[in-house]
Task: inverse folding
């Protein structure tokens, strides 16, 4: 906000942080109404109650809609009206050691089938038939399981104050993961035993250790690693059929419907969504070594295409020629404001237990877990 306040003669921006922003709207009666809201999970059934139309900032050439990734811009529309503008996003990433590049198909995007088959070829057992190398196991990272479910069409989306999903896709995902673990890695118990023995270092160090071929990591976590530690690391985006599913916590911006400073708020939006402004913000972070704290724009890639294509590679050399095409990005579906809690306490535990090949007792269904969540956390 310092850059904006210095550049403006009249309006000044003041930041108020809310840990659970999506659940904090509308503000409490004793709180001042915000002018601009920036955060995750703002696209829900209350979007029209919380936000004003942003059509005015796209008029008179203030912001060119074509400068922003079209699938992400569409995320903020309801009935053809723009209520939110995407600010930044992250995408799931699979990293591996450059020395193992020949073991993996040359592509910017990698799907779960390729990971499974490449990883199986990396597996190695001792003379006692115990794994001493394991390429990758789906049980190692719950967020990997979640993304595989998304890629298989599970379509988690808001329904009331909870969510709905595609049951057939959920069941096929569980069967797919179980077959992978059982047929390639000897089952979930073997995967977890290997993880306990060897996988205690950060992801970028694990893939250089020769114990595993792949590691899953969020793109913002990967690009927050100091550059000298990733010199021998390569990466592919995790996706399927040419599509990359943007992480659910995509950051968006909206004009609060009850704002009393709409003109100044629009001035800020116009100032922020320009390549020159975002280049200055990224350059300043790099000069001050702030990139060890936050990646890029609001901890992610910019929603402005030219910033990712021209600005990011100058600061993050590893990104040169690696930004995905606009048409490959798939924005999240509308999600409930308590999505992070639901994902952490309902979906992730269910996926982890349901895909365990060694589970011998019945596990709670998603509906049963939602009921428990309602009683304990809602």
Result:
């Amino acid at each position: 906000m310092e850059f904006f306040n210095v550049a403006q003669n009249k309006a000044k921006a003041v930041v108020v942080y809310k840990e659970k922003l999506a659940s904090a709207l509308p503000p409490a009666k004793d709180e001042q109404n915000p002018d601009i809201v920036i955060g995750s999970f703002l696209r829900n059934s209350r979007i029209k109650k919380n936000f004003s139309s942003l059509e005015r900032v796209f008029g008179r050439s203030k912001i060119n809609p074509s400068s922003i990734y079209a699938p992400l811009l569409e995320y903020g529309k309801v009935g053809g009206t723009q209520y939110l503008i995407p600010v930044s996003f992250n995408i799931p990433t699979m990293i591996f050691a450059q020395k193992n590049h020949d073991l993996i198909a040359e592509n910017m995007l990698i799907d779960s089938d390729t990971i499974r088959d490449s990883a199986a070829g990396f597996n190695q057992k001792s003379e006692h038939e115990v794994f001493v190398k394991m390429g990758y196991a789906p049980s190692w990272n719950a967020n990997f399981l979640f993304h595989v479910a998304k890629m298989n069409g599970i379509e988690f989306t808001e329904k009331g104050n909870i969510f709905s999903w595609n049951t057939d896709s959920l069941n096929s995902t569980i069967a797919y993961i179980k077959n992978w673990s059982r047929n390639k890695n000897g089952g979930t118990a073997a995967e977890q035993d290997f993880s306990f023995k060897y996988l205690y270092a950060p992801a970028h160090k694990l893939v250089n250790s020769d114990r595993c071929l792949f590691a899953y990591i969020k793109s913002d976590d990967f690009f927050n690693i100091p550059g000298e530690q990733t010199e021998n690391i390569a990466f592919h985006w995790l996706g399927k059929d040419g599509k990359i599913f943007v992480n659910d916590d995509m950051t968006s911006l909206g004009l609060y419907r009850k704002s009393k400073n709409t003109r100044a708020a629009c001035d800020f939006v116009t100032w922020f969504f320009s390549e020159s402004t975002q280049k200055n913000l990224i350059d300043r972070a790099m000069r001050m070594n702030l990139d060890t704290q936050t990646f890029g724009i609001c901890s992610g890639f910019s929603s402005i295409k030219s910033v990712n294509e021209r600005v990011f590679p100058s600061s993050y050399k590893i990104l040169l020629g690696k930004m995905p095409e606009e048409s490959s990005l798939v924005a999240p579906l509308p999600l409930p404001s308590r999505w992070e809690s639901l994902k952490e306490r309902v979906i992730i535990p269910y996926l982890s237990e349901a895909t365990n090949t060694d589970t011998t007792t019945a596990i709670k269904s998603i509906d049963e877990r939602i009921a428990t969540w309602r009683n304990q956390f809602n």
User: Anything to note?
Assistant: The mean pLDDT is 90.
